[in-house]
Design brief:
With 1525 residues, the protein is α/β, with parallel strands linked by helices. Among the domains are: 2-74 and 110-117 and 159-268, no CATH class; 124-156, no CATH class; 319-401, no CATH class; 527-725, P-loop containing nucleotide triphosphate hydrolases (Rossmann fold), CATH 3.40.50.300; 1140-1205, no CATH class; 1303-1384, no CATH class; 1386-1483, no CATH class. Helix content is 49%, strand content 9%. The strands form ten sheets. It has a six-stranded parallel beta sheet, with helices on both faces. The protein has a five-stranded antiparallel beta sheet with strand order 1-3-7-6-2. A five-stranded parallel beta sheet has the order 20-33-32-21-31, sandwiched between helices. Helix 44 packs parallel to helix 47 (1169-1176). The radius of gyration is 38 Å and the shape is globular. Mean pLDDT is 83; it is low at 18-38, 1113-1124 and 1459-1525.
Length: 1525
């Protein structure tokens, strides 16, 4: 089974135009269903449990495919839309009303959110350079390394197309398809078809039961089940080349209905994770079904016998029939390639996608008279049989049909599950898996169980399913150990899936290891600490090294000298040495060899392959062997027992004997498997020898269970080489070291040096070959390398074609394993060790040996000569066909350890960092990177469902390289995997999102009911919106902060019209955030106020009476006035208080919008704007020569601050202090009645009458003590709104977070990591230290939650998260703490800052940009906001004092003579400044609008194209530099 993405937009057209029509284009005007019937291809059918919710079944139409895969709609969207319109369209409707009906009709047919419409992106380099230049020009400094890395990473991840689904292709092995297409007996064909369908449906069942999942939560942290998959299945008889190829396309939609009742996107992680297991299940069921129906047996294909996963074909199926069709495909592909080469030579570029399609059709026509139009399956079979007879004679068909004799073959006796030794088989499965992986998942075990049981026949398919399940369960429960930590808290039922697993875990992603692996790793670590008596004395070592340097002229650097001395003189049983590519490991090994010899000990060199052992032997001038061969001799060889006892063995085995004092050296030890290293160290310990490992765990790792070298180096230390010698250019050497550790800045060298080419994969193959050829002709030793074997084979084919044309090799040849031909004078590589094939007395044919073909024999054998020692050997036909490939190019695995003059590398997107690093570190004089950015049109158009893959403008070379460098593919050891899993479980990055989602689920019903009560007319639209959870979280945060939430919601909704908003929920959540994030001390909830008053009345009636009247708790439906009415309300309030003359003057004042915003704040706080104005107006408010609106607005802000903070001494203000303290105590878990009683009791112990003020003071002290300094400030707890049954769980989760924050704070304070270097010193007095520690805890918590790994002290918060991205709000909370620890003082006059922010928001866009840039430059390193657009963050609360100063200096604000704190404000603007102000900002009248407001909802007189708040911010907004930057 293979899997491909189906891109939205036009990706589906390949399903309807190609796949659904038999892999060819239908005739114009023909409906798909009719076309299938006429041509004999069966129509597609719907499958999947998800169809029930759609009311869908039966055949698939092209219209349905277009709706589902093209538009993300219900397959029957056309009918649904028509029905809705029919029901709701009425005569006389206006154009606007009709448009609204059409929108609602489309919404009725939509399955969740529409597919994202990704905009065209500028070239990658332009996007990156634009953002970097913005930092230089707008902030006045160079971008930091962290900023540049973040920018490149973000730009490289920007998606081009939405994914509409996945195309799963189920194809039997070739022999099954050939038998099906060629056998004329209907019952045989039917049996094969039914077997294929049964296997396909079984695999789909596995996928549906285990991968039909979706994600939910604020950051997708919860994975929930769905109602099943929606899939369209199309069965086909042939491939694009017309060969017999029975296969099924299963197009699985990305739309799934979650158990939460919402249509959401399929979680593709589970799909990809289970793909291999599903494929193995398909193969197993297919074999069993064919055996049960036809008695067929299967056996491994000869050329795959030595592979990890052999391909099993029908036993005794004629091999010539298999190879016939494959060879024909190669002919067509060769012709296609020739046509593309001609096009490239003529036009100087790759053909476009349409042109490539035409060339593919020409290639087919030129080689086999073209593929015929779709025809009936019976007609196709007749043609295949005729072709077979023409090629192989009339008896060829008889040999094919003989595979299934009449009546079928005798079948094996089946068994049931009870007859299976489940425990033994489970142990065998895990034993095999642990040899290949240090850790594994359930699906790895399931795949291996399928392989183990493939030849076992069961009585029924159900019995087989039971047996497989039993073995998998036993393998995981008995023989495996989970690497995941146990649950720190039991999730409630609402947070568990139906199988009982937590929604916070990925289904099937749990990793396992075994006791054997853990013990092996532990033994290796212990061996690296265990001292032995095996050592050469230091003086001898120094003398030998000095002599070696003098004699060879090779001086060892300090690192090499330290390595030699450590390996020779340190007596530990096991030691590791780490060296990057080109660090001179070979030079050090030569010196070590002489030191060991001088110490009268023996060096036993081992490598991880036979060819590498030959190179090692040549380098050291001594025998060397393959690690696997060494272990085989000790465990399975005929002399194993004698070796273990230290007895004499034959001379040819003498190398493998170990004696006390021997030093075993393993070169390229990072490629050695953990279990093999453990076996080697155990053998060495028993024989009194020691082991030395030399390699680099950052290069390619073991193909077996890996991670051991890294574990040993991290646990016990290692000697590391750091000086690079291989590279002619030291700058290139430095670049490779950066790439080695994942720093993409290392790519700059290759880009600046012009060593990055880009284009189609086919074009890059040509260019890589041309570069390699030029170097070879120039006499340089060059390497041509690629990631995959398929790309290597293509490069080799290109090289051979050129050599054939130049008559350097013969045109004819023997077909090799890689599909290429090899003839006389071709260069080949052998791919398997065969000690029976000897090219001399001692040397044998090894995996990786390089040869030249001397003679090609008629039977397919080759006489070859070794390229180095020149020995000759005859390679038999079977070996040639299965284990020989052309040598002209190689993979990174085979290249590791080699050194060349030049390297030409084909880079593809699937490459990992380790592969890439090996490639760039091979060449002395330069590596050129040929980056394949796209594919040309494929001969098989089935592949075109992923349109991005063939889009030449989709990716830039640098983007792909950034992906490659960022992708670390090396396997962790089981020990490190466990540590990583536990660390992630304890980290705030896991704890906080889980707690946040739990709060969402626990409070959802409460806030839904609130919205329904307060906003009955629009409640359903809000709560059904995909952005509902943003509203939910805003309401919850407001509740936690002590807001009167119903009143706040009411005020927020009526602030401005909503009928033009595309998403009510998004707009409302934005408005709520603008208020609650800006008001740390809100007015208390009216209902709470009444409740607290009643409690106080019961305990102290006199004090309750002193508090004055209470507010009404009644919440009304939003007033029915319009936005204009609401703005008129503010104008009326000003007129009522100021009088008509001054009100008219105010409306003409440039600062009128600022005053409106101040009154809007009063409205949002639940305070009457008129009352607020009346309370602040007196003659002192108006100062000659100052702005009336500014003066009044400032006074209003002072008044509001006093009211919310309760700083006045009147009874109302004191009562607010009491209610706030009680709210805080209640949020902390203290009952209000108990808090009041304790405060009253405490007050009674003091002399004097209890007053309202003294009660408030005592409650405030208690509230301060109850504050939770260890919960991140951006994470607000809530005890109301959740059912009581949730509270213990939520409390436990909160406590885990507290512990983590406390631990982070103490660790950071004691260890003072590098990122704290620019923070103030830790205070000595307890009170100041407490404040300092709380700020430190906030910063450390932010870094932990958002995984900030960079230790740059200038940017301890890491990269800036733009507005709308996860973590933006938390970033600014942490930024306030960071600035505080850098010495910033809190603003003593917040009202002045609020006024500045309001006025800034009323400025025009250009002026905002100018002010923002000036502010960022003035702050320097203290500017923590957006460096591309400083204007968007200039009004952040942490910068308001500085913003006010700049606004005053630029003539935008009239500065009062002194602020309320007694400080002189910034200097008033000069006359010139005022003139500038009046030039740039016109006077506002009722007829003349104010300048466009950028960041807030503007008052009536401020027309604002962006005035509707940003309701359409996507979860990951794509932002780039503004035009002109």
């Amino acid at each position: 089974m293979t899997i491909h993405k189906i891109t939205a937009g036009d990706g589906y057209t390949y399903l309807t135009r190609q796949v659904a029509a038999g892999d060819t284009s239908p005739e114009r005007g023909k409906a798909a269903a009719r076309y299938y019937t006429e041509t004999g291809n069966p129509p597609g059918i719907w499958m999947g449990s998800g169809l029930t919710d759609l009311g869908l079944a039966g055949q698939v139409s092209e219209q349905q495919m277009t709706a589902l895969f093209g538009q993300g709609l219900h397959p029957n969207a056309a009918n649904i839309i028509a029905d809705y319109q029919r029901e709701h369209v009425e005569a006389g409707m206006s154009e606007g009303q009709l448009e609204k009906v059409n929108q609602l009709a489309l919404k009725a047919a939509r399955l969740g959110r529409p597919f994202p419409d990704y905009k065209h992106l500028e070239p990658f380099d332009e996007r990156v350079s634009g953002r970097l230049e913005a930092i230089r020009t707008e902030v006045g400094r160079a971008p930091t390394a962290a900023e540049e890395k973040k920018i490149r990473r973000e730009e490289a991840r920007r998606q081009r197309r939405a994914v509409a689904g996945f195309d799963l292709v189920f194809t039997p092995v070739s022999s099954v398809s050939r038998l099906w297409g060629l056998d004329p007996r209907p019952w045989v064909r039917d049996a094969i078809e039914q077997s294929h369908y049964a296997a396909r449906d079984t695999a789909l069942k596995l996928l549906e039961e285990n991968a039909a999942l979706t994600r939910t939560g604020s950051s997708g942290q919860a994975q929930i089940e769905t109602h099943g998959l929606i899939a369209a299945v199309f069965d086909h008889a042939d491939n694009r080349l017309g060969e017999p190829n029975l296969h099924s396309h299963v197009a699985v939609s990305s739309k799934v209905l979650g158990t939460n009742g919402k249509w959401q996107a399929l979680d593709a992680r589970s799909f990809y994770r289970i793909t291999v297991a599903a494929s193995e299940l398909y193969n197993t069921v297919l074999e069993n079904e064919l055996h049960a129906r036809l008695g067929l047996e299967f056996e491994p294909r000869p050329d795959t016998l030595d592979k990890r996963e052999p391909v099993r074909e029908i036993k005794d199926f004629p091999s010539r029939v298999l190879s016939h069709f494959t060879r024909r495909r190669s002919d067509i592909e060769a012709e296609y390639k020739r046509l593309v080469d001609e096009f490239r030579a003529t036009h100087g570029r790759d053909p476009s996608l349409p042109a490539a399609h035409e060339l593919a059709q020409q290639a087919t026509l030129a080689t086999r008279n073209g593929k015929k139009p779709p025809r009936a399956w019976s007609k196709m079979r007749d043609e295949w049989r005729a072709d077979l007879a023409e090629t192989f004679g009339s008896k060829a068909l008889t040999k094919v049909t003989a595979i299934v004799p009449i009546g079928g073959r005798r079948k094996s006796k089946p068994i049931n599950c009870a007859q299976l030794d489940v425990a033994e088989l489970a142990g065998r499965v895990v034993a095999e898996v642990q040899e290949q992986h240090a850790t594994w998942t359930r699906w790895s075990v399931l795949a291996q169980v399928q392989r183990e049981l493939r030849g076992t026949r069961f009585t029924t398919p159900t019995e087989q399913e039971i047996a497989v399940s039993a073995v998998v369960d036993a393998a995981l429960s008995t023989w495996s150990i989970s690497t995941e930590p146990p649950e720190s808290v039991a999730e409630p039922t609402a947070l568990r899936r139906s199988d009982g697993s937590s929604v916070f875990t990925q289904h099937g992603a749990e990793r396992y290891t075994s006791q054997a692996v853990l013990e092996a790793e532990a033994r290796l670590v212990e061996a690296a600490k265990y001292q032995t008596a095996v050592a050469v004395d230091g003086q001898t070592t120094d003398l030998v090294v000095a002599d070696h340097e003098h004699r060879t002229g090779e001086s060892l650097d300090p690192g090499q000298r330290a390595l030699v001395k450590a390996f020779a003189c340190d007596g530990r049983l096991l030691m590791a040495g780490i060296g990057p590519g080109g660090a001179g490991k070979t030079t050090a090994m030569k010196a070590l060899s002489e030191v060991i010899d001088a110490g009268e000990k023996r060096l036993v060199p081992l490598a991880t392959s036979a060819s590498a052992a030959s190179v090692l032997a040549a380098d050291l001038g001594a025998d060397a062997e393959n690690l696997h061969k060494f272990l085989w001799e000790w465990t399975k060889g005929p002399h194993a027992e004698a070796l273990a006892r230290g007895q004499n063995v034959p001379r040819e085995v003498g190398f493998f004997a170990l004696n006390p004092g021997d030093v075993v050296l393993v070169d390229e030890a990072g490629m050695a498997g953990t279990m093999n290293l453990d076996r080697l160290v155990t053998i060495a310990a028993e024989r009194g020898a020691v082991v030395r490992l030399l390699g680099d765990y950052r290069q390619l790792g073991a193909v077996e269970s890996g991670g051991a070298l890294r574990l040993i180096a991290n646990e016990c230390g290692a000697v590391e080489l750091s000086t690079l010698y291989r590279f002619a250019d030291p700058i290139e050497a430095e670049a490779t070291l950066k790439i080695r550790v994942g720093d993409a800045a290392g790519l700059d060298f290759y880009q600046d040096a012009g060593r990055i080419r880009h284009g189609s994969r086919q074009g890059m193959t040509e260019q890589a070959y041309a570069g390699w050829k030029a170097d070879m002709l120039a006499g340089r030793k060059a390497l041509m390398v690629a990631t995959s074997n398929a790309n290597v084979a293509e490069l080799c084919a290109r090289a051979r074609a050129d050599r054939v044309a130049a008559r350097q090799v013969e045109a004819e040849g023997v077909r090799l394993h890689d599909g290429n031909l090899a003839g006389a004078r071709d260069l080949i590589v052998t791919r398997d060790n065969d000690r029976r094939l000897r090219s001399g007395v001692r040397d044998f044919v090894k995996n990786g040996d390089a040869w030249e073909v001397v003679e090609r024999h008629e039977n397919g054998a080759l006489t070859v000569q070794h390229l180095e020692h020149r020995g000759q050997v005859l390679l038999p036909p079977g070996y040639v066909a299965t284990n020989v490939e052309l040598l002209y190019a190689t993979t990174a695995h085979r290249a590791q350890g080699s050194t060349v003059d030049a390297c030409h590398a084909l880079i593809t997107e699937e490459m990992g960092r380790e592969n890439f690093y090996v490639i760039v570190s091979r060449a002395r004089q330069g590596t050129v990177l040929y980056v394949a950015t796209h594919e040309l049109a494929s001969l098989d158009e089935d592949e075109h469902v992923d349109a991005v893959k063939f889009d030449q403008d989709a990716y830039a070379a640098r983007e792909i390289l950034e992906h490659v460098v960022a992708r670390e593919t090396a396997e962790l050891s089981a020990t490190e995997q466990i540590r990583t899993s536990f660390a992630e479980a304890e980290s705030l990055s896991g704890l906080v999102p889980r707690y946040d989602h739990a709060l969402d689920v626990a409070t959802d019903a409460h806030y839904r009911q609130m919205v329904e009560r307060v906003l009955p007319d629009v409640a359903e639209e809000i709560t059904s919106d995909s952005a509902w959870h943003a509203v939910l979280r805003a309401l919850r945060d407001a509740d936690a902060a002590g807001w009167d939430v119903p009143a706040l919601l009411n005020t927020t909704v009526r602030r401005r019209e909503l009928h033009t908003a595309e998403s009510l929920a998004q707009v409302i959540s934005w408005r709520l955030r603008r208020v609650i994030d800006a008001e740390p001390t809100p007015v208390a909830d009216a209902a709470d106020e009444i409740r607290y008053r009643l409690l106080l009345g019961e305990l102290a009636p006199t004090l309750a009476a002193d508090a004055g009247p209470t507010r009404s708790s009644t919440v009304s439906v939003p007033r029915a006035h319009s936005y204009d009415d609401h703005e008129q309300f503010y104008e009326d309030a000003v007129s009522a208080v100021l009088g008509s003359v001054r009100a008219n003057q105010a409306r003409e004042d440039a600062a009128w919008p600022t005053l409106v915003l101040a009154l809007r704040r009063a409205d949002a706080l639940g305070l009457d704007p008129t009352t607020s104005l009346d309370a602040v107006i007196d003659q002192r408010t108006f100062r000659a020569g100052t702005s009336v609106c500014q003066a009044v607005a400032l006074a209003v802000h002072h008044y509001l601050d006093a009211q919310t903070a309760g700083t006045s001494n009147n009874s109302r203000s004191i009562w607010r202090r009491i209610t706030r303290a009680l709210t805080q105590l209640e949020q902390a878990g203290t009952e209000p009645a108990a808090a009041l009683a304790d405060a009253l009791e405490s007050a009674e112990t003091r002399p004097g009458r209890i007053t309202l003020a003294s009660l408030a003071a005592r409650l405030q002290v208690a509230a301060h003590r109850a504050e939770d300094p260890l919960l991140p400030p951006w994470l607000r707890t809530i005890r109301r709104g959740a059912d009581l049954q949730w509270q213990p769980y939520l409390d436990t989760r909160a406590e885990l977070i507290r512990r983590r924050v406390g631990q982070l704070a103490q660790t950071t304070a004691s260890e003072r990591p590098a990122w704290t270097a620019c923070l103030t010193a830790e205070p000595t007095d307890p009170a100041s230290r407490e404040v300092w520690l709380s700020h430190l805890a906030v910063i450390a918590a932010y870094r932990d939650q958002y995984r900030v790994a960079d230790d740059d002290p200038d940017h301890p918060l890491g990269p800036y998260p733009e507005s709308g991205r996860v973590g933006h709000r938390a970033y600014w909370v942490a930024a306030a703490s960071l600035l505080a620890l850098r010495g910033a003082r809190p603003d003593a006059n917040p009202a002045w800052g609020r006024l500045a922010a309001d006025h800034y928001r009323t400025l025009g866009v250009e002026e905002q940009n100018r002010i923002g840039v000036e502010l960022a430059k003035r702050l320097g390193q203290d500017w923590l906001g957006d460096v591309r657009e400083p204007s968007v963050d200039a009004d952040q609360p942490v910068y308001l004092h500085q913003l006010a100063a700049i606004l005053a200096e630029n003539g935008h604000l009239d500065v009062p003579e002194s602020d309320p704190a007694g400080r002189r404000g910034p200097r008033p603007p000069s006359a010139r400044g005022r003139a500038k102000l009046h030039r740039t900002q016109p006077v506002h009248t009722s007829q003349q609008p104010a300048p466009r407001v950028r960041r807030s909802e503007a008052p009536k007189h401020t027309p604002n194209p962006d005035g509707q708040p940003p309701p359409r911010i996507p979860p990951n907004p794509q932002r780039g530099p503004r035009p002109g930057q």
